[in-house]
């Protein structure tokens, strides 16, 4: 199992790479092989998942990141869950929180369906460092493509957003104090259900080791005409149920951890939570004025160097 130092380093790296558009899973594979970490090896066919403590460690890291995202966007999630309940009761979608709730539900469908079926087979098939390096390089290409497509549907989305804002103003039941925060999310609410489903399908590409869940969701948002700040927020909101769901799905792996593993697992989860919180705060600031290109350049360089090393 990992030492305390390894747990802190890997937890911190996972927390950052889970939210940065550079693939946490790809980095976990590449870091282990660059550093010679035998503790990362997956169980063989005749072993149960609990025979590999590292799987329990990864589950704890993902749950920590999901908890941080839930806390960071707690006001949004409170409005969204309330709006979703109201929408179910009334059968209408009149406000930004109600529409965002349904967009997140629709966008989560591809991962919810494909994840349990393909996650473990794909990870086993493409768990080699060479495959992770290849997909990390392609992730960089995808980020560049997203930037190139960003303005393609922007005029249409902007007009739809204005129409939705006028309709919401007529039907809104929120107080004046709540409106400024809700208005900031109107560009997200301007997405259609087809847009949300498309972004969810793009995000599902992260089932391949080396592609970033957040990065692909951001590319999908840019493709549908969102600005970087809104594309990033929707990616984080969409990633929260996906990360939490994946963690809860594999939660039974924690039962296989021995008493000696508990310390590194908890310390790694704490490091992951702290780095996730710092990452989301940084990215919110970054995408107000900057683009995905710096992350694309990193993926291209790191992926290419790893391809040459493991090829």
Describe the protein.
The structure is a single chain. By secondary structure, this protein is mostly helical. The protein has one domain (4-310). It has 14 helices and no strands. The relative contact order is 0.21.
Strand and helix map with partners:
Blueprint: H1 4-19, H2 24-35, H3 53-72, H4 74-90, H5 96-125, H6 129-149, H7 154-171, H8 179-184, H9 186-189, H10 193-203, H11 213-223, H12 228-249, H13 259-286, H14 293-310
Helix pairs in contact: 1-2, 1-3, 1-13, 2-6, 3-12, 3-13, 4-5, 5-10, 5-12, 6-11, 6-14, 10-11, 11-12, 12-13
Structural class, from helix and strand content? Answer: mainly alpha
Order of helices and strands: HHHHHHHHHHHHHH
Q: Quote the average pLDDT.
A: 82
Poorly predicted ranges: 41-51, 173-182
The tally of strands reads: 0
Q: Enumerate how many helices there are, as a single number.
A: 14
Please compute the radius of gyration using only Cα atoms: 20 Å
- What is the terminal-to-terminal distance? 28 Å
Strand content: under 5%
Helix content: over 70%
Count of spatially separate domains: 1
Key phrases:
mainly alpha; 311 residues; 14 helices
In a nutshell, what does this entry contain?
By secondary structure, the chain is mainly alpha-helical. It contains 14 helices and no strands. Helix 3 (53-72) packs parallel to helix 13 (259-286).
């Amino acid at each position: 199992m990992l030492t305390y130092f390894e747990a802190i380093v890997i937890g911190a790296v996972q927390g950052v790479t889970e939210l940065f558009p550079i693939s946490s899973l790809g980095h976990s594979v590449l870091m282990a092989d660059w550093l010679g970490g035998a503790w990362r090896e997956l169980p063989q066919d005749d072993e149960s998942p609990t025979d590999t403590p590292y799987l329990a460690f990864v589950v704890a890291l993902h749950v920590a990141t999901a908890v941080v995202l839930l806390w960071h966007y707690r006001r949004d999630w409170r409005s969204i869950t309330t709006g979703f309940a109201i929408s179910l009761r009334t059968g209408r979608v009149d406000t930004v929180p109600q529409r965002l709730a349904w967009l997140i539900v629709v966008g989560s469908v591809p991962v919810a369906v494909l994840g349990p079926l393909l996650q473990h087979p794909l990870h086993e098939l493409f768990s080699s460092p060479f495959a992770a390096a290849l997909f990390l390089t392609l992730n960089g290409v995808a980020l560049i493509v997203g930037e190139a497509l960003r303005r393609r549907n922007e005029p249409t989305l902007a007009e739809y957003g204005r129409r939705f804002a006028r309709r919401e103003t007529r039907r809104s039941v929120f107080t004046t104090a709540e409106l400024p925060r809700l208005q900031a999310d109107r560009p997200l609410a301007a997405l259609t259900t087809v847009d949300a489903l498309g972004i969810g399908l793009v995000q599902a590409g992260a089932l391949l080791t080396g592609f970033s869940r957040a990065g692909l969701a951001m590319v999908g948002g840019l493709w549908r005409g969102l600005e970087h700040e809104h594309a990033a927020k929707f990616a984080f909101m969409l990633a929260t149920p996906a990360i939490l769901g994946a963690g809860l799905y594999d939660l039974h792996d924690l039962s296989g951890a021995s008493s000696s593993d508990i310390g590194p697992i908890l310390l790694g989860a704490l490091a992951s939570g702290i780095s996730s919180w710092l990452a989301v705060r940084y990215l919110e600031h970054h995408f107000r004025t900057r683009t995905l290109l710096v992350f694309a350049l990193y993926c291209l360089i790191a992926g290419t160097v790893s391809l040459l090393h493991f090829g």
